Structures are given as structure tokens and as C-alpha cells.
Amino acid sequence: MKRSLLVIFLITILGNISNAQYLSSSKMSGVGVPFFQAGVFRTFKESVEDSLRLVRIYFQIINDDLTFLKQTDFYQAEVEFDIYINNQTKEFVFNRTVSKKIQTVSYEETNSRQLTNTFHTDILLKPNVYDLIITALDKTNNKQVNRKINFVLDDLRERKFLTSDILFFQDFEMDSTNKIVSFEPNLSNNFSGRSKYFYFYFASIVSDPRDTLRVEYIIRNPGGSIVQFNQYAIANSNNVNENYIRINRQLFDQSRYELEVISSYRDQTIKTKKVFSFYWTENPDSPKDLTAALDQMRYIIEADSVGWALKQNYDDKLGYFKRFWKRVDPNPETEKNELMDEYYLRVNTANQTFATLSQDGWQTDRGRIFIKFGEPDDIERHPFEIDSQPYEIWRYYSNRKVFLFVDRTSFGDYYLHPNYLDEEYN
Predict the structure, then answer these.
(1) In this predicted model, what pLDDT tens digit does every residue of 2-38 receive, in sequence order?
(2) CB 226 within 8 A of CB 167
(3) What is the pTM of this model?
(4) Which fold has domain 159-278?
(5) Separation of alpha carbons 67 and 54, rounded Å
């Protein structure tokens, strides 16, 4: 009975939203359709003068978003990607179909959310503005998902050197000389997990291989301050140079950063920017994230229990976190925990919407009510009232609840009016 009541309570308080510390998977992932990630990587052929640009289109899909059929001694899924490209005047310029088969010998791996399948196809295009439409078809259940990406190919024939887009990655293979020969790009640009390093890649080429290309890269935090800077030179490169840069993950303690790569050759400069993040996904990866995730659970479990967990070491904290969310998982047969997704997405929204100068959004009165009861059916706002402090009235018709919040400082510091405290627990 106790578990049933908790699950019912959780179901009633959960909603949707965006990301701050926690990065949820898409709502289309884990529901039986071939949801996939896609990315456009703009690079070049082995010539500066060539008018055509080389475009590599990446696809990534996890096993859990595919339908596997049992074969004699393995399980197999088949997915088909249909690529359709229009230019800026909506004229058709390209179409290609890519079919792939994925096999595994383990039934558990067919439902894995960690096993990612990465594919790519290369296309040559003229400079223009393009719309890329990709359709993924699961050939086993005949369900499909569409994605649309807009991208621009500039005319670079006047350039004396070229650089490609940036790709982030963590997983790679090396040859016997410790040279990276292949890698799996991270299309989300998010790094969850406790790996010590992550990497970024870009290609470059100069018109005269006897010259030197100067490269510097800068990483800035959300406030714009530089947290890492480095520079180097590339000389005597006979063809395309592949740049692999290793970054120490331990140097970053915030969730979101911007990378800028500045390449200079003779009198020309190319700047490329890319945002990357460290939001946690399946489980909090760092001690800081885990502490925050546990603290944010105090609206659904007893404060004493949270307080006890926060005093434990990292492994015991993580064990406590996993046990709780596994116990209330509405569908334990799958790796995706819908209740945990929804709860932390609501925490994220509270942080983004209700933060004050002294408190994170989830700690405020409005944030707490939002996390517990979700988006109000109606909000009546009174920001500028004569002889009255600003106030808001939140109404939940289905729950028959009304909350009055008063801005005590006139700087957005709303608190729940004492006359409405009982409403939260009735």
C-alpha cells in the first residue's frame, strides 16, 4: 500500500519541461519508435580551390529505440534512413537511402539505452542554404520518425585555407603508434559519465603546405570568462590535417560552456564556435551533481531520510538514489525511468523560471508548488498594484487548490501567503 500511494503521488506531481542539471532523453525515445540523433558535419575535399563542399551526415540510434527480432542465435533490427535535401528555393537537390542492420546475441542488449549505433554518409554539395529532411524507418514494426535540419554552405573559393566544423567525442580507437584512427562523435555535445577526458576534432587544409597554420582555442564559462586557452601551430602538412584536442574534464565545475576555435593563415582568420555541456543523464555522475539531485528529492520523501543520505559517501549516496527511483519506476522492464525524468525536468524548469538572487528556483515557494503540482491551470498576475505588493494567484482546478504568492521585495522574491500554507497539504 505504501508503495502504491507513493507512485500515485509521484504520478500526480510530474510534468514536462527543459534542462538545467539533468538532461532527459526525448519524449519520443523509449516509446517504440525509431527516435534518432542526427548531425551535419561540414568539411571539404582535399583541395582549397574546389567549389564543392563535403558534407557528412551522421545518424545515431540506441538499441532501445529499435525493434529486434529473434533469429537462430542472435537478435536483429533493421533501420532505414531516407535523406532528402532541398535548396533555399525549395528545389530538390539530393536523395539517398541508407539501410543498416544491427545485431546482438543478448536479449538484455536489445533494450539497452547505453548501446549507441552510429552511421554516416558523405555528400558533395554546392554553396547554398539547405533543408535536410531525414526519415528513419524501423523495418520491423514499420514505424518512422522525421527530423529536419537547416544548414548553410558558404562559398569558400576565395579562402586560402579551410577548416571544418567541430565534433566532440569520447570513444575512439588508436593504432599501434597511438594515433587516433576512428571515433564516435557525440552529437548531443553533452558529456555525462565520470571519464577524465573528452575530445574535440576538426580538419584543416592550407593552400601552400609549406606555410604554417596557427590555431588557438578558448573555452568560456556561462558568464563569458575564459577558463581554458591554448594555441599551437601546424607546419609542413602535405594534405588535410586532422586536429584531435584532448580536454581535461576535471577542470570544469559548471554545466555549460562555449568552445571557440580560431584558425589563422596569412591574412585570413576563421572562427568556429560550439557549445558543450555536462548535464547528467541516467545517474548523477559527479559528487556535486549527486548531492544536488538528492537534496532536490526532499519534496517527495522525508527530509530526515534525505539528510541521512547526504551524509554518506559517494557510493552509498548513489546506491540510495538508485534504489529509490528503481522502487518507484512505473515500468521496471525498461531502462528508462519516466517518473525520474519528469521529476527532474520539473526541477529544471523551477530553476530556470523562479530563481532569485538568494535561492535556486527549486528552493523557492513557487518552485516547490510547481514541482509538487505542476503547471497551474490559471495564473492571475498583479505586478503593479497601487497600495499593494505584487502578487500572483495560481489555480489548480482539477486538484481544487488555489495559492497566493506575494512579492515581498518587489524584486521577484515571491513567498506563499501564510493563509494558503494549509492548501499545500490538504
Answers:
(1) 444 444 444 444 433 333 488 888 889 988 999 999 9
(2) no
(3) 0.84
(4) Immunoglobulin-like (2.60.40)
(5) 33
